[in-house]
Design a protein that fits this description.
With 740 residues, this protein is an alpha+beta fold. 48% of the residues lie in helices and 19% in strands.
C-alpha cells in the first residue's frame, strides 16, 4: 500500500466560499496596507503534471512534515510573488503587472487562511494563536486519538533510502521490458501446467488450515508483501523519488506493510505515478507466475505448499484486495491517477454532498469544483459506491467486534463504531443544512422534498400490508408416499407411473438380508432352548433353570415374530384405491436404498390440500377461514383460491415438507440433521427461525394434480405497517441479545 495523496491547498481563489464547510465562517479580509505574514523559508513550490482539465498544477512541499499541498494557478501567482510583495496592496499590484490577473483583498485573505490552517507561515497571524492552541490540544487528546486511530494507524519502522539506492544496480534488470516479457511467458506456461493438475492444485488448499500450513502461509504472505512494498520503492527510486520511511500500518488491528512514496507527487507524468502505483501488484503477479511454474515440478511437501500460497496470494490479493478502489490500497491511487483527480475520496464526497443538497433543497450554491460533465458523473457515482461500501464495512467491523469480544466491551465498541463512523458524518451534514437554513427555506425544492418525505412517513406507519406469504406445496386430497421400511436391495417394483391400483395391490418389494440372517440366528437359538427343555428330566442343572429357560424361549419366539413382521413390511402394498402418480426413476430393481429414499407416490380422491409454513411474526395476523390464493411456481398452471383450515399453535420442530427447505433450494432456511442421515433414518430439517405450519383447502375442485405442486400461499391477514414490522424486529434482536 502507499501513503495518502497530497492535500489540496484550495478553496480556489475567486470561487464562492458559501458552500461546504465555509458556510457560516467569516472571511479573513486583509486591509491593503497590512503586512503579509512571512512564509516559511524551507517551503518549496514546484510545478507538477496537468490536472484533469489539462491546466498546469503546482504543489507546495513541506520538507519538515514531508507533506504536499496542491495549489491552483491563481494561488501559485500569489505565493510566487509573496516575498517581494511586503503588503497586501503591493502584492495585488505585482500580480496584476506580472500575470495580468486582478485579484481582490478577499482572495489574499483566502490564501492566508489556507497557509495558516496548514502551518505554512513563520508565525501565525494576529488572533490565530488561540486556534492553533486548540488544534494542538485536540492533537494531544488521547481519547480523540484513540477514536481516530481505531480503524487505521501506522508505525514507521525503517528508513530504506540508502538500501534502495545501493541495491538498485543489482535489481534494475528485474524492471526491464525483457524480464517482464519472460515473466509473462513463464506465467502462461505455469497456468497451462497447473490446469493439467487442477484437482491436485486445489487439493493443496485444505493444508493451509493445519498448524504447519498456517505457519507456512503466514511466512509466505509476509515475504510476498515485503516484495510488494519493495516494488513500489524501487520504481519510485527509478523515477528519482525519495523513500523516507517504510513500516507497518494497522487496519482494525490487522497489520499491513506500507511504503511512503509521497515524493511521487513531484512527478509531472501521471503515467510514471501509475507505474509506481501498480508496481506492487505487478511484483506479486510476477512471483505468482514463477510460483505456478515451480509448483508443477516440486514434489509434495512443505515447499510445494509454500509455493501454492505464493501463487494463490499473488493472484487473489493483488486482484481482489489491492485493486479495491474504495479503500486506500493501490487500486484507489491507480483510479485517482487515471482520472487525474488527487484526493479522490475527499473531493468526491464533497461533490456528492453538494449534489445531495441540490437534489433535496436546491439552495443555489455553486459546485465546490467545476468538473467536466463526464467526470462529474464518475465522481458522484464513485462517492455513492464508496459510501455504501464504508457503511457495510463499518457495520461488519462493529458486528465482528461485538461478537468476538467480551459482551460489555463489545457493546461499548459497537456504539463507538456506529456513532463515530456512521452517525457522526450524518450529524455533521445535518449541521451544514442548519447553517444553510435561510437559503433552504426559501427554495421551492425544499417543500417538494418535505412533501415526499411526509408521504413516505405516512406510508411507513399505515397498516397497508395485509397479505401474508407462505411457501407451500399442494397435495391431492388423499395421498401417500412410500419409503422402504428397512435399508435393503430393491427386489422388484410392480407398478408404473399412471397405473391404477386397488387396496392391497403390491407396489414394490425390498430384500433385507440382515433380517433373514437375524431370523436364522433366532431359529437356532429357539431350537437349542427347546432341546434344553426336552432333557430337563435327565439333567439336574437344567431342572433348576426350567423357568429361566422357558422365559428365554418365549422371548426368542417374540423376537422371531417381530422379525417376521419386519420382513412382511418389506412387501409394500396400496392402503387405498388410487393412481400411481410418481415412481422414482433413480430407484431400479437390484439397487440398494435407505429408509429416506421415496420409491412410489400414490394419490386418490378429488380436491387438493395446501401445506406450508408462515414466519413466526406473521402467525398472529392470520384468522380462521382466512381466504387467499395459491400461486404455483410452474408458470403453466393457473393460480387457485384457497381457504385456511388450520394453523399450528406452536412453532414447528422440523419442516416435514423437504422441498420447501433451503437444503432443496426452497425458501425456508434450515439446519439439516446429518446424524439422522448417517444412521440410515430420514433426514430432519430444523428451521433456523420460527415457522408455523398452516393447512389450506383449495377451493377449485377441478384443480386436482396427480402429484405435489410447489408454490406460494398468499393469505389475507391483519394489516401491519412497515414501521411496526421494523420495530418488532429491533425488539426481537434487543431481547435476544439482552442476556449477559
Amino acid at each position: 500500500m502507499k501513503i495518502p495523496q497530497p492535500q489540496i491547498g484550495q478553496p480556489q481563489i475567486g470561487q464562492s466560499q458559501t458552500s461546504q464547510s465555509q458556510v457560516g465562517q467569516p472571511q479573513m479580509i486583509q486591509p491593503r496596507d497590512a503586512p503579509l505574514p512571512a512564509l516559511r523559508e524551507d517551503l518549496q513550490i514546484m510545478r507538477v503534471g496537468a490536472s484533469y482539465s489539462g491546466a498546469p498544477t503546482w504543489v507546495v512541499f513541506d520538507p519538515i512534515r514531508n507533506r504536499f499541498f496542491r495549489i491552483t494557478y491563481e494561488m501559485f501567482q500569489v505565493l510566487s510573488s509573496w516575498r517581494i510583495g511586503g503588503t497586501v496592496g503591493n502584492l495585488l499590484k505585482i500580480i496584476d503587472s506580472r500575470f495580468g490577473n486582478r485579484l481582490t483583498v478577499e482572495d489574499i485573505g483566502t490564501v492566508v487562511r489556507m497557509l495558516e490552517h496548514n502551518l505554512l507561515l513563520v508565525q501565525p497571524t494576529r488572533g490565530a494563536w488561540r486556534a492553533l492552541h486548540q488544534k494542538a490540544q485536540q492533537r494531544h487528546s488521547w481519547f480523540m486519538r484513540l477514536i481516530h486511530n481505531y480503524l487505521f494507524f501506522k508505525i514507521p519502522l525503517v528508513r530504506p533510502e540508502r538500501f534502495i539506492r545501493n541495491s538498485w544496480p543489482h535489481v534494475a534488470f528485474l524492471f526491464s521490458k525483457a524480464f517482464w516479457f519472460i515473466s509473462a511467458i513463464v506465467g502462461l506456461a505455469g497456468l497451462y501446467l497447473v490446469s493439467r493438475q487442477w484437482d491436485a492444485f486445489v487439493g493443496t488448499f485444505p493444508f493451509v488450515f493445519s498448524w504447519e500450513g498456517a505457519t507456512i502461509s503466514i511466512l509466505s504472505v509476509v515475504f510476498i508483501k515485503c516484495l510488494h512494498e519493495l516494488g513500489h520503492a524501487y520504481v519510485a527510486h527509478r523515477f528519482g523519488c525519495r523513500i523516507p520511511t517504510m513500516g507497518v500500518a494497522f487496519m482494525v488491528m490487522v497489520p499491513l506493510l506500507y511504503t511512503d512514496v509521497s515524493d511521487a507527487w513531484k512527478l509531472k507524468s501521471r503515467w510514471q505515478r501509475l507505474r509506481i502505483d501498480s508496481a506492487g501488484m505487478l511484483v506479486e503477479l510476477t512471483v505468482a507466475a514463477y510460483a505456478l511454474l515451480a509448483w508443477a515440478f516440486v514434489p509434495d511437501g512443505p515447499l510445494r505448499s509454500a509455493i501454492f500460497v505464493l501463487a494463490a496470494t499473488g493472484v487473489v490479493l493483488s486482484l481482489l484486495v489491492n485493486l479495491n478502489p474504495f479503500m486506500r490500497f493501490d487500486g484507489y491511487y491507480i483510479l485517482a491517477d487515471l482520472l487525474g483527480v488527487e484526493n479522490l475520496q475527499p473531493r468526491g464526497f464533497r461533490h456528492m454532498r453538494w449534489r445531495l443538497r441540490e437534489l433535496l433543497f436546491r439552495p443555489g450554491y455553486p459546485a465546490p469544483e467545476a468538473f467536466p460533465p463526464r467526470l462529474d458523473v464518475i465522481l458522484t457515482l464513485y462517492a455513492i459506491a464508496t459510501a455504501i461500501y464504508r457503511i457495510t464495512l463499518y457495520l461488519g467491523i462493529a458486528l465482528l467486534v461485538y461478537h468476538f469480544t467480551i459482551k460489555l466491551i463489545g457493546i461499548l465498541l459497537f456504539i463507538v463504531e456506529i456513532g463515530f463512523f456512521i452517525l457522526r458524518p450524518v450529524i455533521m451534514e445535518v449541521k451544514e443544512w442548519w447553517a444553510m437554513r435561510s437559503d433552504i427555506v426559501r427554495s421551492r425544492r425544499t417543500y417538494v422534498t418535505a412533501s415526499i418525505l411526509l408521504v413516505l412517513l405516512v406510508l411507513a406507519f399505515l397498516p397497508i400490508s395485509t397479505r401474508i406469504s407462505a411457501p407451500a406445496v399442494i397435495y391431492p386430497q388423499q395421498f401417500a408416499r412410500f419409503y422402504p421400511r428397512e435399508p435393503g436391495r430393491v427386489e422388484k417394483i410392480e407398478v408404473t407411473a399412471g397405473q391404477k391400483v386397488k387396496t392391497g395391490d403390491m407396489l414394490f418389494v425390498i430384500d433385507a438380508p440382515e433380517i433373514g440372517e437375524e431370523i436364522g440366528i433366532v431359529d437356532v437359538e429357539i431350537e437349542l432352548a427347546r432341546l434344553r427343555l426336552a432333557r430337563i428330566v435327565a439333567n439336574a442343572e437344567d431342572l433348576a433353570q426350567r423357568s429361566s429357560i422357558a422365559s428365554e424361549l418365549n422371548g426368542l419366539l417374540a423376537r422371531r415374530q417381530g422379525l417376521e413382521e419386519r420382513r412382511a413390511a418389506l412387501v409394500v402394498t396400496a392402503p387405498f384405491d388410487g393412481t400411481i402418480t410418481d415412481v422414482n426413476p433413480e430407484v431400479l430393481p437390484g439397487q440398494w436404498v435407505g429408509r429416506g429414499e421415496q420409491v412410489v407416490f400414490l394419490s386418490a380422491g378429488a380436491g387438493s390440500i395446501a401445506r406450508g409454513y408462515v414466519a413466526g411474526n406473521d402467525s398472529t395476523r392470520l384468522a380462521a377461514n382466512a381466504s387467499g390464493w395459491f400461486i404455483p411456481d410452474d408458470l403453466s398452471l393457473s393460480k387457485s383460491p384457497v381457504t385456511l383450515l388450520a394453523i399450528a399453535e406452536t412453532g414447528a420442530q422440523e419442516i416435514d415438507v423437504p422441498q420447501l427447505t433451503s437444503h432443496y433450494h426452497g425458501a425456508i432456511a434450515v439446519h439439516p440433521s446429518a446424524a439422522s442421515a448417517a444412521a440410515g433414518k430420514r433426514q430432519r430439517f430444523v428451521p433456523i427461525t420460527a415457522q408455523y405450519a398452516v393447512m389450506a383447502r383449495v377451493a377449485n375442485e377441478t384443480f386436482a394434480p396427480g402429484r405435489s405442486v410447489q408454490g406460494v400461499l398468499l393469505l389475507d391477514g391483519d394489516g401491519v405497517s412497515l414501521a411496526a414490522r421494523a420495530w418488532r424486529r429491533v425488539l426481537m434482536v434487543l431481547f435476544r441479545e439482552a442476556g449477559f
